[in-house]
Amino acid sequence: MPISQVANLSLGDSRTIVVQPWEKKMIAEIEKGIFESNIGLTPQNDGESIRLSIPPLTEERRKEFAKHVKQFGEEAKVSIRSSRHKILDLIKKEQKNGLAEDVAKRKEQDIQAQVTDFSAKIDKIIEAKEKEVLTV
């Protein structure tokens, strides 16, 4: 049974999760479930609630998160380029159906400008998030 169906979850501070069961008899079962989940957190039972202290990130884990940030950024750029290709194909079809060549070229240039702009924004976001993740 999901923990959210038997208890309230809240944040004690930025590194502590507080699990407060609706029924006190569930504390032992929730604690056992957290132990068995093997998530690397040790529950602290105070009789009314369970506290989970999240340890600070290691340098290795921070680098792993930075890699994930880059990966998500690249996926976003690939998605943008894919959309660009679909739009360019539509423009070419419209050009075959009578759209003026200069209008089609202008639209292609506008699309490319937007793709370039959004790719640059993604790069800035990636850079900022990497810096945030790698900062101790």
Question: Which tags fit this structure?
Answer:
single chain; 136 residues; alpha+beta; Topoisomerase I, Chain A, domain 4; 2 domains; 61% helix; 15% strand
Describe the fold and architecture.
By secondary structure, the protein is of the alpha+beta class. The chain has 2 domains: 3-53, Gyrase A, domain 2 (2-Layer Sandwich), CATH 3.30.1360.40; 59-134, Ribosome-recycling factor (Topoisomerase I, Chain A, domain 4, Orthogonal Bundle), CATH 1.10.132. The chain contains 3 helices and 4 strands; from the N terminus they run ββαββαα. It has helices at residues 27-37, 59-96, 101-134, and strands at residues 7-13, 16-21, 43-45, 50-53. It has a 4-stranded antiparallel beta sheet, with helices on one face. Helix 2 packs antiparallel against helix 3 (101-134). The two termini are 36 Å apart.
Lay out the secondary structure.
Layout lengths: L6 E7 L2 E6 L5 H11 L5 E3 L4 E4 L5 H38 L4 H34 L2
Antiparallel strand pairs: 1-2, 2-4, 3-4
Helix pairs in contact: 2-3
What's the CATH architecture name of the largest domain?
Answer: Orthogonal Bundle
Gyration radius, in Å? 25 Å
Q: For this structure, what is the CATH homologous superfamily of the largest domain?
A: Ribosome-recycling factor
Number of domains: 2
Beta-strand percentage range: 5-15%
